Amino acid sequence: MSNEVWEKVADFLQELRCSDMQRTGLVHLDNCIVEKEKMKLSKAQYVKCLDNISAQEQKIIEEYVMRLQQVAFEEQQEAYCQGIVDTLQIMSGLQLIPMNENIQKLIKKLQ
Length: 111
Hints:
The protein has 111 residues and is mainly α.
């Protein structure tokens, strides 16, 4: 039974980051906000440039941009999961939670 609970906790933590974008504990880094604004400006230039190249070249560039976005998303997921693992290990090291088999399984699942 406790293994099922820890599996549910792991699943919940992995999906939490993307679920509630209005929660009070949500982090917004200033640099990220600045870069998003720069991206808006760059997108207009990007779209204009796409109009001046062939359909084949557009497809290559759009595929590359899609891959960049996917890699960035996966890296964000890794960083988020790493934060969870680090938190569990810190809490265990401080003896706030026991480092038992279930915690170790949760950490392995997140890794």
